[in-house]
Write a structure and sequence with these properties.
CATH class of the largest domain: Alpha Beta
Oligomer: single chain
Bound molecules: flavin-adenine dinucleotide
CATH architecture of the largest domain: 3-Layer(bba) Sandwich
Number of strands: 17
CATH superfamily of the largest domain: FAD/NAD(P)-binding domain
Order of helices and strands: EHEEHEEEHEEEEHEEEEHEEEHHHHH
Number of domains: 3
């Protein structure tokens, strides 16, 4: 069977679906087709934390009503290796309210996908991209495997939003991130009546530094709990992710968790973003390694990139202007997020040292501006991690020790 479309989006996670909605809104006359290898609702191993950046992106595509039935969270708590903690408000992004949400991806991704279909996007579930032919001059030809055989799809532009193990990335010959720029994480769902569950919590535990364990509350008494570690530091012969998760759960006073719903997956950090634009193809989201190396957050950046790539393709395909439908998308991405990711990576390097992580928490307890900077690096778009901040951390942490 043969199909044609203007814009093909491969992958219907948040990056691909946000792109599809943006394309429809910007160019309703173009034929936008989304394929995904699975049928939704499907789970995606994740912390389920939707930071203020996701709220801002949903506003951009007119879909904030998808959050209406969920409990907003407006604060974040950071726990240092010594157990000392500090809490502060979530940041505002692009004028949106300083709120976050925790919604299981099984629900969030399905709701976003249903919205795309309502907006007129054509969706083909259970279609797995298996080959890619970039040799024709003005189109890309893909082949997708379906339960009923193969389908050939010819598109004028392709957005690759097919996740951390992107098949398109592999077909283009772009290596995946090395273990030095990849995170590994495990998550589960817990029930506990005693935990407060009112903040998004980041626990910078000694054995995980510079990464951390999280508690993201879904509703009173329920949370998504997990731990993240750099792949290069992971030695399963010494301690498995499951053991680390058990230890973390015990530390926060939780003994009951949903073992059937425990999952592990990888996080390609934005410390190694590949070239994103390949003539008529653009990589977005995890396929383009767009995960904050400090926090592991990736949904907001993936959605932002998906929306931008789709708007560019919508404009250029209608105007028949640029040779590449995505123009200088790479430059846009690096200008928009490069400084943020560099600052986040720097903060992470500092947090590698246990004493410095403890100093940071102590200093943030005394200086709200420093706390705001740290939170903005974790779940916002902060770019400032100045020498002044570092000196404040050293001075305040040290004075506390002497005091
Ligand atoms: C344990 C863990 C916790 C995390 N916690 C958070 C968090 O709390 N907040 C946050 O912002 N980020 C978090 N992240 C990162 C976040 O999960 C990703 O950044 C995000 O899912 C990226 O979205 P995406 O749309 O690029 O890819 P995905 O969500 O992975 O979607 C990719 C889609 O492509 C489809 N696909 C794959 N291959 C093909 C193919 N060949 N053909 C057709 N379809 C295909 C898949 O079925 C899938 O639906 C976490 C990651 C992990 C592993």
């Amino acid at each position: 069977m043969r199909r044609t479309c203007d814009l093909l989006i491969v992958g219907s996670g948040p990056a691909g679906t946000a792109a599809a909605i943006a394309a429809r809104r910007n160019a309703p006359n173009l034929h936008t087709l989304v394929i995904d290898r699975t049928t939704f609702p499907r789970d995606k191993t994740c912390g389920d934390g939707l930071g203020p950046g996701v709220v801002a992106r949903l506003e951009q595509i007119g879909a904030t009503d998808l959050l209406a039935d969920s409990r907003p969270i407006d604060a974040l708590r950071i726990v240092g290796p010594s157990g000392e903690s500090v809490s502060g408000p979530l940041p505002t992004i692009g004028g949106s309210e300083p709120k976050g949400f925790v919604i299981p991806r099984q629900d969030f991704d399905a709701a976003l996908q249903a919205r795309a279909v309502t907006e007129g996007v054509e969706l083909l579930p259970a279609h797995k991209l298996v080959t890619l032919d970039t040799s024709p001059a003005h189109t890309v030809i893909t082949r997708a495997q379906t339960p009923h055989g193969h389908v050939s799809i010819q598109a004028k532009a392709v957005i690759a939003a097919d996740g951390a193990r992107s098949d398109i990335r592999r077909h283009l010959g772009i290596p995946y991130n090395s273990s030095k720029t990849t995170g590994l994480a495990i998550r589960t769902y817990i029930k506990a009546s005693t935990h407060p569950f009112d903040h998004m919590e980041f626990h910078f535990r000694k054995d995980l530094l510079p990464a951390y364990g999280w508690v993201f509350p879904i509703e009173r008494g329920h949370a998504n709990v997990g731990i993240m570690i750099d792949a290069a530091r992971y030695d399963p012969g010494n301690k498995t992710l499951r053991t680390m998760l058990n230890e973390f759960a015990m530390e926060i006073g939780v003994s009951e968790f949903d073992r059937a719903n425990t999952g592990t997956y990888m996080l390609p950090y934005a410390t190694s973003v590949p070239r994103l634009t390949h003539n008529r193809i653009a990589l977005v989201g995890d396929a383009g390694s767009m995960i904050n190396p400090f926090s592991g957050e990736g949904i907001a950046y993936g959605m932002a990139a998906g929306i931008e790539a789709a708007e560019r393709a919508a404009h250029n395909l209608q105007q028949h202007t640029a040779a590449s439908p995505f123009g200088d998308f790479d430059d846009w991405f690096h200008q928009r997020f490069g400084k943020h990711f560099r600052a986040s990576a720097y903060a992470k390097r500092l947090a590698q040292r246990q004493w410095l992580a403890n100093f940071g928490v102590r200093a943030a307890r005394r200086r709200p501006s420093l706390l705001a900077e740290g939170i903005h690096l974790l779940v916002g778009e902060g770019t400032s991690l100045s020498w002044r901040s570092l000196i404040t951390v050293l001075a305040q942490g040290n004075s506390h020790l002497r005091g």
